[in-house]
């Protein structure tokens, strides 16, 4: 998500870039640069290492040298898409990108046809929502590895009203909003579940499938589970139990559990609340999460639950990780409060060798933290029902980095500073005010933690830190060239052990840096990649991550309006993480102007890569472009039809592996 709203200083920009973290905990970037100065010694070792890695595989040295020379040492053999920006999407030669579903397309069997000139909330409740982000592929039947038929679980993170209705602009849309418009926006948020099938090489939605479902902020009931369920701070006039919430908000990325459920992450929930919260009992809590400070929407003017003066506890009911069963469309989504409340970007779920389940999650704001949760119970491959409550009991930890290790600090009521002396009366308080608890234990302030994924091949955890433009030069030491850090970087958390047997429950991990993004040809960027990087291989603002069956990492980017500075559109890049191709990113896809790239997701066979093109035409084009005069009409290119956020399936023409 890159949203532009009026900021406290009167300018317009992305509120994620402005930290609300009041602590003086050591900045991670300081540590990063100390580490990287040691890595310099490794430059230039690439080709030699590749030959060494492949020796003994039966391939002749000469053949290896020729193959590696062509790919720069990478196992990825595709021809890159050129950098640049225009009104279309671009995919590598030999690949195709087919549109699977667009905003307004039919989801449920009774959905009416999309009418761009008459947007009705009740219709949107049955149609594909706006600004698609996370994509999870769930094979059919459940438990199979079918890569030609499955259910896509797709987040609808937010809405861009100026591209949905005629006559609005990014700056006047809040003032001009009507109740009818906000009703529609609530329905355009949430999720879609759609069955898809590969037919003749193209992916299509399955009309009338029993799995097709819309979840909206307007009307889908969700159960609150775990430590905060039923707590007084969770109760509202509409829900005296504190256990039932209508809807989910700003669902950004997510994750999949080994038992076949989706975790959807509530990120910038604060943007939807208005009213004056400064004198209310929750004022400090609001401040730490940015609630009722800069509403990006007008919902609170028409819907009392988004006005903190009328419903002071409603913001406490968002900011959670929500678990949903895509195989049971009648099931009720569960807000898993034991995992903590934050601007959760996503979640990465992995089973540790002893059977306990570990969930990693980042809190995407400048200077906020990385968390992990370890369940009390153990995963049972033969008891799905028992797995369905695993995420309600366990211990939440936050990451503190030093030069060589990551240490996981428990956020447990009664331990350390998390006591009544600091206004924590129970674990429910720790869950509701997770950020303040993490401040008190001294967690490491990060450069906006976005997606996290666990690589099933090497067991390493990949974390995208998208950027931190707000970090001042004086917050880094003399040798740190990345303060501010406009281009972001990707780190690896390395639990003890090997491959799939790494112990994710360990309290101490190693860590490393995969790359520092930016343009390596521009010394001001101080970017670092593999020395064999091509001119099309560099990226900026890494956001989402997907890992293919061969353990290669694929990165999607979200620069917001900063693409005007880099002059490259967002997209997807893949890279090896071991051997000669480590940190040798290669671009396979490019979004149309003003879009960000979200949701990379592979089918189990690695032959399809689904991606979400979010807010085409929205970011940074010019202040006046809107529904009436969009910068692109992707993907329809029809007069009168604005750009539409859409899910795209990338496949190889010969049916082979993505990236080969
Ligand atoms: Fe919704 Fe952090 O991007
Ligand atoms: Ca994101
Ligand atoms: Ca982002
Ligand atoms: Ca991911």
Q: Can you lay out the helices and strands and say which pair or pack?
A:
Layout: E1 5-6, E2 12-13, H1 28-39, H2 46-54, H3 61-71, E3 90-91, E4 95-102, H4 121-124, E5 132-139, E6 149-156, H5 173-176, H6 179-188, E7 190-199, E8 202-205, E9 213-216, E10 221-225, E11 244-246, E12 251-256, E13 262-266, H7 283-289, H8 299-302, E14 321-324, E15 334-336, E16 348-351, E17 356-362, E18 370-378, H9 384-387, E19 394-401, E20 405-410, H10 427-432, H11 434-441, E21 449-454, E22 461-465, E23 489-494, E24 508-516, E25 542-547, E26 553-557, H12 563-566, E27 571-575, E28 586-590, E29 596-602, E30 608-614, E31 646-652
Parallel strand pairs: 10-15
Antiparallel strand pairs: 1-2, 3-28, 4-31, 5-6, 6-7, 7-8, 7-9, 10-11, 12-13, 13-14, 14-15, 16-17, 17-18, 18-19, 19-20, 20-24, 21-22, 22-23, 23-24, 25-26, 26-27, 27-28, 29-30, 30-31
The structure holds MU-OXO-diiron and calcium ion (3 copies).
């Amino acid at each position: 998500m890159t949203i532009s709203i009026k900021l406290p200083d009167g300018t317009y920009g992305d509120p994620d870039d402005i930290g609300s973290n009041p602590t003086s905990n050591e900045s991670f970037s300081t540590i990063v640069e100390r580490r990287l100065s040691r890595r310099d010694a490794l430059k230039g070792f690439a080709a030699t290492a590749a030959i060494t890695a492949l020796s003994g595989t039966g391939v002749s040295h000469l053949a290896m040298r020729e193959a590696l020379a062509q790919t720069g040492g990478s196992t990825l053999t595709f021809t890159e898409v050129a950098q640049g920006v225009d009104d279309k999407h671009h995919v590598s030669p030999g690949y195709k990108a087919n549109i699977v579903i667009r905003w307004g397309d039919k989801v449920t069997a009774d959905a009416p046809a999309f009418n761009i000139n008459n947007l009705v909330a009740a219709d949107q409740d049955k149609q594909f929502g706006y600004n698609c982000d996370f994509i999870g592929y769930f094979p059919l039947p459940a438990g199979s590895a079918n890569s030609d038929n499955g259910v896509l679980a797709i987040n609808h993170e937010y809405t861009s009203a100026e591209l949905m209705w005629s006559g609005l602009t990014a700056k006047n849309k809040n003032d001009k909003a009507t109740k009818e418009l906000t009703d529609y926006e609530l329905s355009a948020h949430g999720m879609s579940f759609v069955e898809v099938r590969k037919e003749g090489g193209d992916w299509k939605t399955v009309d009338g499938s029993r799995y097709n479902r819309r979840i909206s902020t307007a009307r889908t009931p969700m159960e609150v589970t775990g430590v905060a369920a039923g707590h007084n701070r969770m109760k509202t006039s509409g829900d005296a139990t504190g256990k039932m919430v209508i809807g989910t908000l700003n669902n950004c990325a997510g994750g999949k559990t080994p038992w076949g459920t989706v975790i959807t992450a509530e990120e910038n929930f604060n943007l939807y609340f208005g009213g004056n919260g400064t004198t209310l009992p929750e004022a400090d809590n609001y401040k730490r999460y940015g609630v009722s400070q800069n509403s990006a929407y007008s919902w609170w003017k028409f819907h009392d639950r988004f006005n903190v003066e009328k419903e002071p506890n409603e913001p406490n009911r968002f900011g959670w990780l929500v678990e949903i069963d895509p195989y049971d469309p009648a099931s009720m989504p569960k807000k898993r409060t034991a995992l903590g409340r934050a601007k959760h970007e996503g979640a990465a779920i992995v089973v540790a060798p002893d059977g306990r389940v570990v969930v990693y999650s980042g809190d995407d704001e400048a200077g906020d933290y990385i968390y992990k949760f370890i369940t009390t119970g153990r995963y049972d491959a033969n008891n799905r029902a028992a797995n369905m409550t695993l995420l309600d009991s366990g211990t939440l930890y936050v990451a503190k980095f030093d030069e060589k290790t990551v240490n996981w600090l428990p956020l447990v009521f009664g331990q350390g500073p998390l006591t009544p002396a600091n206004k924590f009366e129970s674990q429910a308080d720790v869950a509701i005010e997770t950020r303040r608890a993490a401040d008190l234990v001294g967690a490491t302030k990060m450069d906006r933690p976005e997606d996290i994924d666990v690589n099933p091949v090497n067991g390493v955890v990949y974390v995208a830190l998208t950027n931190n433009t707000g970090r001042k030069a004086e917050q880094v030491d003399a040798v740190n060239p990345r303060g501010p850090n406009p281009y972001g970087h990707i780190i690896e958390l390395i639990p003890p052990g090997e491959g799939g047997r790494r112990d994710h429950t360990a309290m101490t991990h190693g860590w490393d840096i995969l790359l520092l993004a930016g343009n390596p040809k521009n010394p001001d960027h101080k970017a670092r990649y593999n020395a064999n990087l091509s001119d099309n291989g560099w990226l900026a603002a890494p956001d989402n991550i997907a890992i293919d069956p061969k353990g290669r990492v694929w990165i999607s980017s979200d620069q917001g309006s900063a693409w005007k500075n880099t002059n490259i559109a967002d997209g997807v890049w893949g890279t090896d993480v071991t051997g000669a191709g480590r940190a040798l990113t290669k671009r396979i896809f490019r979004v149309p102007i003003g879009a960000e790239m979200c949701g990379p997701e592979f089918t189990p066979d690695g032959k399809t890569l689904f991606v979400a093109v979010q807010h085409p035409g929205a970011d940074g084009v010019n202040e006046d472009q809107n529904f009436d005069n969009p910068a692109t009409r992707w993907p329809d290119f029809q007069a009168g039809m604005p750009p539409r956020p859409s899910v795209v399936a990338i496949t190889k023409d010969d049916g082979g592996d993505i990236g080969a």
